[in-house]
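Need tokens for this chain, all 477 residues.
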Amino acid sequence: MKTYLNTVDGAAVGADKTFDSINPATGEVLGRAPVSTRAQVADAIAAARRAQPSWAARPDAERKALMMRVAEVIKANAAALAEWVTREQVKPLGGVGPDQVPGARFEAWGCEVWTQVPASLDLPVEVAFEDDTRRDEIHRKPFGVVAAIAPWNWPLLIAIWQIIPSIRVGNTVVIKPSEYTTIGTLELVRLINEVLPKGVVNTVSGPGEVGSWLVSDPGVDKIMFTGSAATGSRIAEAAARNMVPTTMELGGNDAAIVLPDADPKAMAMGLFWGAFINMGQTCAAAKRLYVHESLFDQTVQALKEIAQAVPMGNGMDDGVVMGPIQNKMQFDKVVSLVDSAKKAGATIVCGGQARGGPGYFYPLTLVTGLEDGARLVDEEQFGPVLPIIKYRDVEDAIASANRLDAGLGASVWSSDVEKAREVAGRIQAGTVWINQHGMIHPMVPFGGIKGSGYGVEFGVEGLKAVTRPQVISVKKG
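Here are the structure tokens for all 477 residues:
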């Protein structure tokens, strides 16, 4: 069985202990990865710190050109990277491009695009104030060493979101992949190190303890984390001790509101993918659907028809659109939430029972008959289950959307865009989509509020988030 290695200071690094990477669809052991020691975490941070000054000193055009070379490497290896995503994360291979099934090939393509876009952006000097006596300029400077913790649901794409903007502006990075999806990320970093100077991007791997060592090390200057609120809270405590700024994307419980003038058939496919992209294992997926009573039955039926027609299975097989849940912990949570809904008297429109056999397969499940306060409504399920709640008054739907301590995304569905805008402006979320859900873009800032975290990624604002401002004030005359 092959052991895949970390990359530290441009070199392959193993460890005395390893752990298995498992295919959740089959139970197959895919390979082994190192369990980094505390000393190895410190070595990776030290390597990033040594590399950072010379990396930041390179001309901006040179760093941009190297980012484009990284994109070329990703494109050249997209097939192999997509297969790692499917085998480890179990997202089906699917197609490529925004109009295709959003599977593993889509994720690999996204890595290429989210590398090219930051490479195309600039952070010019801003003039904050100028008159006859003075000129005050805002310059953007890299923090130094960025510690990144990537999740298992989009393992390569979110790693790229953390790595590329950071190094684009002159930081260096130490990234720890999720222990559930380690090998694909180690391979991604190994490949991009073929064109980057040694020490610019480094990896450590292992259980949560390894991530704790990484984010608490005083050699870290900035932390980027995507994951659960509970882990984010612990990271924030560690960051506070060292006065380290953080960007936190902590998931959400996104509400989608269907207004009474919407067209159920026209919006059904957009709503479906807004909820079930990546088997619902997406932070910004629609996880609570509020539908006006006049459209309720039509909307439920339209979603049911789509859900029952979608093929599920091993993502390496042709024609498969949905895979299993990625890990047992998440599978058990989904089962528990659906069971609690059944006990509360909910109606299972479709799905609702694990199919058994190998793999953490759970059918696409639609649930009605619940209200606010039910576990399946109030807790983020992060899986292939959607509670659909009937409402009568739009004011009540807005209040329901805002009642939880989550604020990553939301959506409003209507035939009247201006009416939808009015509702969207009253929803407490970092992003509110109209007649679409979860449609992120590499040029558009993305981040949460309340318990969904703070800070943004993507676009110019995302580049600013991995830099610190320095004011240079010049007296004239």
